[in-house]
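Checked the freezer inventory, then went back to the computational side. Two predictions to log before the end of the day. The first one is the construct we discussed on Monday; recording sequence and tokens without edits.
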Amino acid sequence: MADLTDPIPTGSTPGPQSAPKRHSLAVLALAAFVLAAGVALSLSWTLARAVEVRSSAVVTTRLLAEGYTWAKVDTDGLIVSLSGTAPTETLRFSALNLAGSVIDASRLQDNLDVEPAKIIAAPRFSVEILRNDDEVQLIGLVPDGEDKDRLAEATKALTEDQPQTDMLQTAAYPAPEGWKPALDLGIVALKLLPHSKISVSDAGVVINAIAASAAEKRAFEAAIATASRGLSVRVTISAPRPVLTPFTLRFVVDGDGARFDACSADTEKARDRILSAARIAGTQGRQTCTVGLGVPSPRWAEATSLAITSLAKLGGGTVTFSDADITLLAGSDVTQAAFDREIGELRSALPDVFSLDAQMPEKAAATVAGPVEFTASLAVETHRVELRGRLTDDRVQAAVASFAKARFGADKVYVATVLDPMAPDGWPERVLAGLQSLAKLDHGTLIVRPDTVEVAGTSGSVLASADISQLLSETLGQGKTFKVSVKYDKTLDPLAALPTPQDCIDNVHDVAASKKISFDPGSAELDAASIGIMDALAKALKNCNGIKIEIGGHTDAQGSATGNLALSQARAEAVLVALQGRQVDVSGMTAVGYGEGVPVADNGTDVGREANRRIEFRLLAGQTAQSDDTATEPDTTATAMAANGPEQPVPGLNDPAFADPDFPDDDSPSVAPTAVSKPPKPRP
């Protein structure tokens, strides 16, 4: 029997015991293969992950270093994906280039978006125009079209022999609303104002200019007001103060009342003091007082006020200041005792620099001899001058005739004088001074006598009386008497048809001082009694086109502060709407409610509450409050009392939306403004 331990011969068939062993070996081999595959996969995943992390890190670092914070980096194996929104197509392309510089560009996947193109806003069109004696400068941006050519043509017409600086640029955008009328007004102002800075935009026009005189300033303002109807315009025109030689003031108290024939002051404060003394002395209405240069003493207002007061105490007469020389002629009814008392006090009170010559009136001499007299009359329509009376000799007669022809026209002078060698000393000078005075009138008469010169007539200039008084005072000398009786005729004044802003607010003040604006109790409805005052206010504002006026509403302190504020705003707007309904140009007016915040009287009494319920009209800043040649009441706020019952909140007006009432930077008008949100400011 064969040994069981003997090896199986090669080529023999295994026995039953070898099958398990072979199975085990197969399992072991399979396990080894799976293990090897798992290790290979794990190693492959680890290596791929390492590549992904490394790729993401280097690409992200490079993009962040260049400021591409909007790009996001994602990896998937060897693929690197860029996503996010690039501001522009150029930046998108640049980001891809940067990523491709640190990894193989074939591995990049572009998932970037680009922001949609934005609509570019139209630029702000504006023009600055600077004009002086040397050149005109144009600076700014205008729409494509004819605007630049129009400005160039207007400038060329003004500066044919002067340099022109054109720094205008154009843009291919449509002109905004309001641009064309604003530019039209700017061109008008350019042609009108020789020394000016004009700013034009679609929001309005701002004009700063210099005038040669107060009269020219008023003419400029009137022309701009006419051309700017309905536009937002801010005008500031400066005029130098006139040099007055001599510095003259003449005050008269007679049967016609108290008045100025001439008034001069060196400052606004001095003017107010003089006018205050005149009002106390009995003047009525508005008085003219020129603020000028050349005052002989800083105590001018003190001296003139003292003399006006003394004349008022005497009860009649005239006082004339010619620089530091004062001539006071008492009225015919003044007693010697009163004269001595008042003149003594005046001499004692006057500053040392002033010299006073005070006289009682001379008694009329009973003579039968013909008077030494020269007369001249200036006809109303023909303006023909007739000269009659006495002259000293042929030479003087020829000189007077030549002077009259030069002033009135060679074909408008008729000479019918006689020669009198016995005429008083200085007679020719008195006659010529009188003719100079007559030439300042539209029509009138002149009488020259040894003791006086009298000029009477009508003029279209508010300054005619002052000019004549200044001329006669300087020519005749201290102690000489003269009489000026000149009436101002508005129809002869070419500028009177276009009132200044100050004229307009003064007219409103006159109406508001005599009548009341009333409302139904607790309501913003104008009552029937207010129809008359609204009609009068509309008439007062006639031709006041585009004037900047604030209509301020005020209440008493009864009721809630919020309700009172809303009520005052509603009432101010009701007045504005009422004026608009009466064909008043309200484009420059604003309605502002102040509520109970600006009281003018004690709210603890019925009388005080009645005073606090009011409508005020105030001239806004940015325009001339008054011309340099005219003095008026210093307060430019007109108040119309609201005569009605205690204030109550208006139903439905609680918690209103408030807006800033201040004058806007672009000077744009507001026809229907709202109430103020901040505490109300005391009016100036």
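The second is the one RB wanted added to the comparison set:
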Amino acid sequence: MLKSQSFQCRSLTNILTVFLLLVWVAVVYRSSVNSFPSHVHAWTQSDRYALTIGYLENGFGLFRPSTPNLWPKYPPEQMPAQLQGITKADLPLTEYLAAQLMKVSGMRQPFFHRGLNLALMLTGLMMLFALMRNMGATLTMAWLGVAFAMLSPVAAYYLDGFIPGIPALAMVMAAYYFLHRYAQSPDLKSYFIAIGLVTLAALIRPPMLMALPGMVLAALWIDGKTRPGKILLPPLLSLLAMAGLYVHNQHLAHTYGSLFISQLMPAESPAMLLTLAKQSLAQWKLEYFSYVQYLLLVFALLMLLIFRHRLQTVQAGIILLAALSHLLAALAYFVAMAKQFPDHDYYFLESFYLPLLMLLSVGLSLPQADKPLRKLSFGVVYVLAFWLMADAALASREKRYTSHPWDQTETTRKLFEGSAAWLDQLGIPRNARMLVPDSYTTNVPLLLMERKGFTVINTTRENLEASLRLPFDYVVVANRSLPADLLRNLPGLTSQLIPVANNGRLGLYRYDSLSGEKQLRDLVMPDQSTLWPVNDSRIVLTPETEFAELVSAPYPAAALSRALLFEAAATADMIPVKNLHLVVDISQGEKQLFYDSFRLDPFFENTDGEAIVRTFVNLPGLAEAGTRLKCYLWNAGANRLIINNPTVEILSYDNLKNHSQ
């Protein structure tokens, strides 16, 4: 009877925990769970989403992953005759399943990829909850462990993201649960499941293999003397599976190339390793964990010391042993990939996050609430800690989802939004191959155009010339990139691009090496244009001149989308020119409504000091009365130069019509 009541109570707490997790997810993730990859590490996330779309468009061969990008970042020595976008990749299981869900539903939405990762991570959190309860944690302490896991700022951001580390983390959380079940009752079935989950997680994301040695050591501690062969066989099969995937991936890389990095990136010296560690902490320490989470880690370690006598039993110490081994493996991984940590916060999720979480889980499971006052104190600690952790996690998410003018990846996403429908309207077939010669990411423009093709990341003259030899049908260029990045590096494009259509953000072109010379204004195809009077026809900038105003005028509301085109001849007395910007500011009184800046100093690279500078700036469709547009030069680098015959032209585009030639 007591056992039945205990089972019913445990079932009710499980249901309540699931309900609370779903409420939290509904409140926090409803606005992002169907969003296209954006903001922090959108490049990496969009490449993973591209694998999902690759399965949807190219067939469901699990071990032949592909993306819309037909030219891999790391090409093979000899490209195959037929370009299919096939790439080497760790097992893209969640991408494959998300594509299957898209196919069954008949819808092509990021929700299926994000939602699947989110659902798997929620399952992992429930396994963590069950693990802590099985280790003897009170209900509030188990909730605190789950809250700690999901409210790490970096975890809270990627929870519904696209990176494969999230479902892999969930699988290893479940593996720890089954490892503890094996400690409770040495049934090899639980051990086999634990090793199987770690293996699957490692196939998806290889760093997860770091959990394997600790689990094997824990199992050997339990009954290694009685059946060592049965304990060692599963990890050997796991390593064999990893080796098989490695050989297959090497074949893919040799035949088709790879979109993803695959080499180790260690520091060259112990001093550099220390520097990289400091840089990582300076950049991300409050994204890894908030202040209260660091305090909870210290509290959990104190509990391990205070209640160390409880760790002497196999069941109590099994997770601690595995977690400590996992932590040592994470340290080794940091040494091997140290150069990636300062710029990639999710490397922490795939290394230190899980062993630290397991240490915390063991520590929080030790104190018992056997008295009313202690139960009350546990409840107060939980509510206060949850509030502080949630506040930090939500503040971090809001910051990460804030757009900035310097975020070129996010700018690219916004410029290409709606481009698939635009191309459909123009009658561009879905099998047309598109060349995007200034992309900032490998796949974002192609995904948003829903077409395959090629992207150029670094717009050097050599890269641009090489891209023009690829088998593409159309060239698509963001108007803002055309003068600043393409024509600056390859001026001959003005006589090679044939304008087809322009929507104010993007230009669609055919390519013909003998099409004839054109002016920039002809290439961007405005419906209307207005030349705004500039204050001076000759502007002298000295090191003491920080700002030089070009235009300050009312910015009237209009139905047409607008852009600003700036052109001037410039002569620099000092080379190199550095930190010279064109700034466009639209304000209403003291309230800034729009700000964008373009660097002009690249126009002077590889010149004798004379350059033609051209800049295209997309303007917002503002309707507020009393707004004013200011356009000025910002001489932040204290340069000395002369700007001759500057012109500021306002271009307008009627997006309601199919504007094409």
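For RB: Residues 372-400 form the longest helix (29 residues). Residues 170 and 414 are 32 Å apart (CA to CA). Let me know if you want it refolded.
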